[in-house]
Amino acid sequence: AEGRAEAGGGGDASGRGEGKRDKGGHMHQTAASAHDEYTKAAEKKRKREDGPAGDWLQLNPKIAYSQYNKRVEKANYMTPEEYAEVKARRGAEGIDALGGVAASKPSQRGLDRMSSELEARAAKARGRRKFYDEKDVDYINAHNERRNKRLEKEYGKYTADIKANLERGTALPDV
């Protein structure tokens, strides 16, 4: 790489910019290294387009869209009988009349279906939460909980006496 910079003048101050390749730069590159660079660049671009990761997944538009599609697939729409009933009620225009949403009232079955879906989602969210009545909570979020567990595993035997003294109130001298 240094030989190319010296021979081609890639690193000089002639206005070409530092780090740019000379015209024959790709000729000195193997197919494997070119493929590696290409895949790294493509992966970097994909990560940038996917948005934030980690605890921020709910803000990612691709994930929000896929969750929406899952909910749409699970949803039970009108049965053919309900559709025929609504179409007959609305007249010749059918379901897609201009007054569509404002003039329509949801059926009791539709309301029950929506409320059962919302209750199922809430129950699933409750199931993800952990409650430990007998355990002291010494964390503020999931990441901090994992960190504290690792620290306890490594240093727990050294800090057990200090924790016991703090619990009893004998760790600090009387002033």
UniProtKB/TrEMBL annotation:
Residues 15-25 have a biased composition (Basic and acidic residues). It is found in: Nucleus. The keyword Nucleus applies. Pfam families: SYF2 (PF08231). One of its GO terms (biological process) is mRNA splicing, via spliceosome. GO terms for cellular component: catalytic step 2 spliceosome; post-mRNA release spliceosomal complex; Prp19 complex. Keywords: mRNA processing, mRNA splicing, Nucleus, Spliceosome. Its main location: nucleus. The keyword Nucleus applies. InterPro entries: mRNA_splic_SYF2 (IPR013260). Residues 1-59 are annotated as: Disordered. Residues 1-14 have a biased composition (Gly residues). Transmembrane segments: none annotated. May be part of a spliceosome complex. Belongs to the SYF2 family. Involved in pre-mRNA splicing. This is Pre-mRNA-splicing factor SYF2. It comes from Prasinoderma singulare.
